[in-house]
From TrEMBL:
Originating organism: Kibdelosporangium philippinense
UniProt-recorded name of the protein: SDR family oxidoreductase
UniProt similarity note: Belongs to the short-chain dehydrogenases/reductases (SDR) family.
Domain of life: Bacteria
SUPFAM superfamilies, per the entry: NAD(P)-binding Rossmann-fold domains (SSF51735)
PANTHER family: DIHYDROANTICAPSIN 7-DEHYDROGENASE
Cross-referenced InterPro entries: NAD(P)-bd_dom_sf, SDR_DHRS6-like, SDR_fam
């Protein structure tokens, strides 16, 4: 298996994308630690993994609390011996409106939240990965330089900001054998609410793809597992495009 004897920590692991990554990592043999603020959703993901023969543990962690994150990652390393993969799927509070309609306070607060949680969790994992001289830091979202959609509000801006953060981490951590990779997504349609209002957004993502289809949650888990594995060891300091060609970043 691709991730046998590896330890993966997923913040926001109870969400749709976090659960998909946890499932993908566990299916390839990783010991998965899913963290978040909602015990019920975390246990749902962990129970599904265990039912399929995988290893999963849960922890209630506020990823905006640096002390809580550091205590958690220390406990993971004490239990498993290492932290080999870390990813934060929490992100910012999305505001899909024209920029002119968003209050300055709301805009700044949302961007700040996204960057703060990413910085906290990455610093915590990097502290151990530097000692190990190995590790993979994954990010999700990515920077789409060809974005031409109005009404995206703070969403693409926030993802661009996180991607800039990832690039800086890449420069500083590469000398320690740590890889940094972003999964560039154009939207995972099977995470969208199944309501009529979302149909146009879902179809626009499909239409933007040359193959006229969208990435699924299973695709996310499979690609993330490959990139994080030693099979993907030549991939670092870059984005891996999982948008089925919809993004050109």
């Amino acid at each position: 298996m691709l991730l046998e004897n590896k330890t993966a920590v997923i913040y926001g692991g109870g969400g749709s994308i976090g659960g998909a990554m946890a499932t993908g990592f566990a299916a390839e043999g990783a010991r998965v630690f899913v963290a978040g603020r909602t015990p019920a959703t975390l246990e749902t993901v962990a129970d599904r993994i265990r039912a399929e023969g995988g290893q999963a543990e849960t922890a209630v962690v506020d990823a905006l609390d640096a002390s809580a994150v550091n205590d958690h990652i220390d406990a993971v390393v004490e239990k498993s011996g290492s932290v080999d993969i870390s990813i934060n799927l929490i992100g910012l509070d999305a505001i899909f409106q024209p920029l002119a309609d968003i209050s300055t306070a709301d805009f700044v607060a949302a961007i700040s939240k996204g960057l703060t949680t990413q910085l906290i969790t990455t610093k915590a994992a990097a502290r151990h990965m530097v000692k190990q001289e190995s590790g993979v830091l994954l990010f999700f979202g990515g920077s789409d330089h060809a974005n031409s959609l109005p009404g995206m509000g703070n969403v693409q801006i926030g993802m661009d900001a996180v991607e800039s953060l990832r690039r800086q981490w890449a420069v500083e951590l590469a000398p320690h054998g740590i890889r940094t990779v972003t999964l560039l997504t154009g939207g995972i349609v099977d995470t969208f609410p199944d309501i009529p209002e979302m149909a146009p957004a879902r179809q626009s993502i499909i239409d933007a793809s040359p193959l006229k289809r969208a990435a699924t949650m299973a695709d996310v888990g499979s690609v993330a597992a490959f990139v994080a594995s030693d099979k993907g060891r030549s991939i670092t300091s870059t984005q891996v495009n999982i948008s089925v060609g919809a993004c050109y970043g």
